[in-house]
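Why does residue order matter? Because the sequence determines the fold. Keep that principle in mind as you read this record.
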Amino acid sequence: MMELFMACTRDNANAAQLTTATMLAGHVQELMSGLPFSDPAYGSGSFGAEYGETLADYDDVDDYHGVTLNPPRDAAGQSIPALGQYQQAISVMPVYPKQLAANTDQSNPDIPEGTYTGAVRIRVRVLYRVTPSSPATEVYRTSWVRLDQ
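Structure:
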């Protein structure tokens, strides 16, 4: 009976983590949905955050490449300190609009970072730490493709 109770408690905690992680990944998608594909000042010739930009200044999708948000952010870009044990790790990689299966391996990309193709794959990994000193473990991962309109 005690083993069943412990298993149910563990499963309930895992479900709560997954629910929170899914919500945090959705926040990143919402946050980035209102941003232009290319930098308003530099166009598609720049990849990643431009010189001097801080998180508060990010003004296009690729500014978030390689960023880990800790504490995580909500859909309006506001910090969520109460969820400080979570992190939102974001990557932005170019893909070809008619070959969406390309460039899926971040460690060995088929298309060089910063190549303008008219499409990018945005990947969000939500990580969780039980304590501040414990290693972060991946709770949830999602990705979507964004086209330049």
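The first helix runs from residue 2 to 33.
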